[in-house]
Amino acid sequence: MPPRANWKGYLKLSLVTCPVALFPAASDKDKVSFHLLNGETGHRLKQQYVDGETGEIVDRENRVKGYEIGKGEYVTVSDEELAVIEIESSHTIDIESFVPKSDVDPVYFGNRYFIAPDDKIGQEAFAVIREAMRQRGVAGIARVTLHGRERLILLEPRAKGIMGTTLHHNYEVRSDSADFADIPDLDISKELLDLASHIIETKKASFDPEKFKDHYQEAVVDLIHSKRAGKPVQFTHVPRPGNVVNLMDALRRSLRPEKSAQLDTKKSSAAALKKTPGRRAAARPKSAPSKGRVKKAS
Asked: Residue 207 and residue 288: Cα distance in Å, rounded?
């Protein structure tokens, strides 16, 4: 079943308009998810809103939104009052300007959407806007109201449609100066840089997302299958990399075949473990007996 549109309205370029729909470009529906259960009964838990003062459960019809203007003092706003707030971006994506995509710092990127015509009458106007952007090699900057907030959106041609990327507002993006302030300026030797550059050259490839697996999700699925089958859970210890003592040596060893490098790493880790006084190998935890069938995660 195709995903439901997150937004429907009009795409506008000057006096040219066409009806469009926005669809999410990514989805978490195939991710493993868990329900919270009562560990004693196995029953699902329910979330409830409780009055912070009386401790009583508040029914849905009595829940209202409130903006705090002072300690314990709120201005309440109803969903009906919010619904009547209508600005142009509530129903129209009006392209305000065009920029080279390279001008937009990726730190501003948010969620991505696929934009398609919403009826046959507007298909020609949609195609004209799309192909004009493609011919000029530019991306459009517009605004759209999604999930109760007006957002900037970057528009660019993608195949037969348009991809929209929401952009964070300037006030939402943190400066990197505080995080990078303690990184020193270093004089890197040409030999070190050449070695690192050569390693990069040997690992160059075309990006193929199918080659990259979600190893954590696969491990969680294996865990669930093992527990459903009543098998003992296998704990795998993955050694963590240590600090590089000799950078030149590490770069040179990195040029060897991958298996040889992994063998050297294991030998180094084992040697370091033996040198550590009073260090004992961590005992493998015993597998807990299965407490019955585990419901398949939704």
From this structure: 42
